[in-house]
Amino acid sequence: MTPEPAPTPKRPRIPVIDIARGVAIIAMVVYHLCWDLSYFRFIPVDVGYDPGWVLFARTILGSFLFLVGVGLSLGHADGIRWRAFWRRWLFVLAGALVITVTTWFAFPDSFVYFGVLHAIALFSLLALPFIRAPLWLPAITAAVFIALPLLHADPLFNERAWSWLGFWVVPPPANDLVPVFPWFGVVLLAVVVTRIARTRGWLDRLARIQPKNRLAGILVWLGRWSLVIYLVHQPLLLGIIYPLSATLRPDLAMRELDFLRACQQTCLAGGTDADRCTTYCQCGLEGVETNDLWNAVATGLVTAEEQALLDAQNRQCSILIYPELQSGD
């Protein structure tokens, strides 16, 4: 009877790579914490659209996907360890489905239908043939995936059904969307870099780096459990922030800042100096509060009675900054 082939040995872990994963998961938790604080109006910045925060999010995403490619290349370079691969893949897929179902109920208009975990599950499958293919093949394929979205866009991909591919003109509403183009190219780029590093002995040099301090140990631990941390951190954050928002009502304070900011911009655009605009807008805010006109201001749906109050308030605040208008009445 033919004996079963021995399983492909697993390469020893490289602490430096685990540390990189640990840093990436900390950055991800920080981003999601700030996103949650922004969503519930604890902080004024719109984390989902602010250019600096968007760049931060994409940097984190790129780091995560690059490390996915590194892990695949390290783990299966001497042969695909199918049992380990499918065990991890099914765990990622289950996590992706849980996130989809959860966000469907929490954010029905912007639920996560192809987020980070969905992408990792698909990209892991797609990358397997490239791990031991001729090096030029993943290199060229990575370049195509990364470059093509820069050269082509089509409104068809604005639709949810096709948006997971990329190429949109306007990104569709989703709290997390990681399209195949260009992000699969980042995974393949990591495969290429890791294979070159292994051939040239760079990985052996990295493996000899064994940090012993406490911070490094914590980062290594976080890196080894990064997938589990990714799955549980957002429910934990929301479990703290949501009750706080219901109790502290930061949206009420934030709407005042929004009102003053919008009023100031409109006033300055009309040619009034900054000091008078500040006085005028503060007067307007007091009037909105006193007469409970927040719904009218927020929706633009104004009753005749509310319009009369707004007109009277506008006259009163205008006289406050231009007293000479009083004699004109």
UniProtKB/TrEMBL annotation:
InterPro entries: HGSNAT_cat. One of its GO terms (molecular function) is heparan-alpha-glucosaminide N-acetyltransferase activity. Residues 13-235 form the Heparan-alpha-glucosaminide N-acetyltransferase catalytic domain. Keywords: Acyltransferase, Membrane, Transferase, Transmembrane, Transmembrane helix. Pfam families: HGSNAT_cat. Its EC number is 2.3.1.78. The chain crosses the membrane at residues 12-33, 53-74, 86-105, 111-128, 135-157, 177-197, 218-242. The keyword Transcription regulation does not apply. It comes from the Bacteria. This is Heparan-alpha-glucosaminide N-acetyltransferase. The lineage of its organism: Bacteria, Pseudomonadati, Pseudomonadota, Alphaproteobacteria, Hyphomicrobiales.
